[in-house]
Amino acid sequence: MIDPDVNPVHFSDIGARLRAYRLGKGLTPDALAKKLGVSRAALYRAEKGEIRKIETLTRVADELGISLPSLMGVGVEYVSTATAFFERMRQLEEGCQQVIGLFSPISYLLTSDEYDNMLRQVLKESIPDGTDLDGEASRAVDTMIEILLARKKTFRLRRPLIVSLVSSADLEPFLLHGLVGRHDLPADTIKQRRHMARHEAEYIVELIRDQPIGIQIGIVREPVPATSFQIFRQTNRSVLAISPYRLGEQPNVRLGVALITSAPEAMSLHEEIAARLWGEALKGAEAVAHLEATIAKYGI
Fold it and tell me: Is the whole-model pTM more than 0.90?
């Protein structure tokens, strides 16, 4: 048995990770319960955090193809699917007071509803031809969209503070090429997607101009890290997520390993990066003027 007095463990967090990794594997609750030889009700309780035996946790980790430390949240949590990663983001956002992040090209949480309508199609067209004969990749996209919509709904209901760093260098190709999953699309489709990209950029301009309570946006002009990162500040801790996944122009939701950790050194280093980028970022009227000039130059 796990003794929470000797080894303090947040069982609800373990259950949340279990759910995220199950989704990442494309397994239904019934399918995973059958593989584990337990009832659907038992798996439901496990995903709610009602799990105490190391033996059970070990079996779950083995079946999901992850390490026991990752499932328990010890050290660095490695997430090898975009579906699992976005579910972990949803879980972390549910309990945070502030989100600080460098997103490419813009924070999904701050996108328009129209963006959601196009994103599903873009992610599906990014699947290479002939690689989804059983429809698994397409189903994974549908699951991801459901998770993303749940994230945005929770954000709008809870309204945590958000500091969004937008890279100007990432925004330029987004406007130039449009919201596309690949570049061999018909000319009319590419034109439509470029209009969509312009709409999103203008949506960000309006957010900066209107200055909604709790939303801060900075436009970064210097080179930024190739991977995005988010810092989730919660009541009793902060969590860092580093991601190779992208939802904008030429999205990547197929390959990569994301990292989630509360390690002090990793937190401190990324807090310093965020503070530096924020300090040098354009804000307010300067950010609006820069974005409007960028839209006029690269948009359709």
Answer: no
